[in-house]
Amino acid sequence: MSAPHLPSAAFFAMACFLACAAAAYQRPPPRETLSVPLADDADGLTPQQVHISLVGSDGMRITWITDDDSPSTVEYSTSSTFQQRESKVATGSSSSYSYILYRSGQIHDVVIGPLSPSTVYYYRCGSNPTRKFSFKTPPSSLPFRFAVAGDLGQTGWTNSTLQHVAAQDYDVLLLPGDLSYADCRQSLWDSFGRLVEPLASSRPWMVTQGNHEIEKIPVIHPQPFVAYNSRWRMPYDADPAAPSASNLYYSFDVAGGAVHVIMLGSYADFGPGSSQHTWLSFDLARLDRNRTPWVVALIHAPWYNSNAAHQGEGEEMRQAMEAQLYGARVDVVFAGHVHAYERFTRVYDNRSDPCGPVHIIIGDGGNREGLASEYLDKPKISVFREASFGHGRLEVANATHALWTWNRNDDDEAVVADQVWLTSLASNPACH
Ligand SMILES: *[C@@H]1O[C@H](CO)[C@@H](O)[C@H](O)[C@H]1NC(C)=O
Ligand SMILES: *[C@@H]1O[C@H](CO)[C@@H](O)[C@H](O)[C@H]1NC(C)=O
Ligand SMILES: *[C@@H]1O[C@H](CO)[C@@H](O)[C@H](O)[C@H]1NC(C)=O
Ligand SMILES: [Fe+2]
């Protein structure tokens, strides 16, 4: 039956299209978990889950997993054909862990170097020479480019984010926690390792932990962070002058010391007197801001957040550590946890402050829990907020200027949705 005096469905569709086009970006629903081959399907793929991370100024840790006892050796070379004259072999060690009934493969860990900056190295791991990988070492001076993505998971949206990260070059990826969303299903750590391998084997991935890494079950599996610490070992003990006591917090320099990155542990003790708190004071006290114009910190649960999700969860840590970061004139604090994007102005103690860090929530990598779309009234210190999937880029141009860009996953297209030039606090005499 038709009702010719009523506007047609096409009219409604057009009206809706126009209204939607004029309004804010319409957020897509969460996507399914990807069918990345799970452990059983990928048996025989060896080595697998290859990823790399920085160690000191000229080393690289190569991590991979095998289901056999093949040797923990890496052959690496600046020649893609591994010409003998150019090739070196490094040896490390391997370990495994048990989680209730699950037993991991052999997790191999080899540090190679010294390596030259801005150089492509080819490498192969263990006893399978047919899987060849390559990475580019980061530059030893500015400019320097970070990709930043939190709360990744392994859904169709994660895939979209990873494609966008890979589409533009970068030097190091920073991940403020919540990697695999395995949530005690250990084979999901394996599938995550395979999903990220194309990226994480070719550029250093530097991560810190989120709540989804804890995987503690009272009585049955009381020890936290077992899979995370086994699979994603970071260089917490790389600097003998300032070692951290734990894989859950550490720091490192890039660009010849022009940028100092501090990875904090939102789920490690952080109160005054804790080893993390003491270590942070020590780490910050060693900074020479003439040599290191940029300091960036990462946490998981945000200290500033106007989303309805996870309100107050970072508050205890903020009270414990904000004065330390402020006193050291940390430039930017990245957080995850809230599945959305939000950028604040420079803040300290809940107020706009020209010498405080810019706080950025970048927990929108693509995990299966979906987006956090409900917001509280917008506080004055919140500059830009949007519940969409995406990733960020921090391009440090020189000692004074860095460009921050948030790329939204706009129906599988990376679209620049927020962009701002930041100036280093070291270059602001009013903050000395
Ligand atoms: C990820 O996305 C790319 C491009 O859209 C597609 O070709 C690929 O199959 C996806 N990967 C998975 C595991 O779904
Ligand atoms: C921060 O300030 C806002 C008002 O702008 C207030 O609603 C909020 O409770 C304050 N948070 C803390 C931790 O003091
Ligand atoms: C630093 O980079 C900014 C942005 O590209 C530029 O405007 C500025 O002139 C540069 N400063 C120096 C000292 O090169
Ligand atoms: Fe989280």
Structure report:
The chain contains 6 helices and 24 strands. A hairpin with a 4-residue loop joins β22 and β23. The longest helix is centred in the first third of the chain and has 14 residues. The N terminus is likely disordered. α5 runs parallel beside α6. The chain is of the alpha+beta class and 432 residues long. It has 2 domains: 318 residues, Purple Acid Phosphatase, chain A, domain 2 (4-Layer Sandwich), CATH 3.60.21; 93 residues, Immunoglobulin-like (Sandwich), CATH 2.60.40. The radius of gyration is 22 Å and the shape is globular. The strands form 5 sheets. Strands 14, 15, 16, 17, 18, 19, 20 and 21 form an 8-stranded mixed beta sheet that branches. Strands 13-12-11-22-23-24 form a 6-stranded mixed beta sheet. The site of one 2-acetamido-2-deoxy-beta-D-glucopyranose (NAG) has 4 residues, from loops. Pfam families: Metallophos (PF00149), Metallophos_C (PF14008), Pur_ac_phosph_N (PF16656). This is Purple acid phosphatase. One of its GO terms (molecular function) is metal ion binding. InterPro entries: Calcineurin-like_PHP (IPR004843), Metallo-depent_PP-like (IPR029052), MPP_PAP (IPR041792), PAPs-like (IPR039331), PAPs_C (IPR025733), PAPs_N (IPR015914), Purple_acid_Pase-like_N (IPR008963). It comes from Musa acuminata subsp. malaccensis (Wild banana).
Key terms:
432 residues; alpha+beta; Purple Acid Phosphatase, chain A, domain 2; Immunoglobulin-like; 8-stranded mixed beta sheet; 6 helices; 24 strands; globular; disordered N terminus; binds 2-acetamido-2-deoxy-beta-D-glucopyranose; binds fe (ii) ion; metal ion binding; Metallo-depent_PP-like; MPP_PAP; Purple acid phosphatase
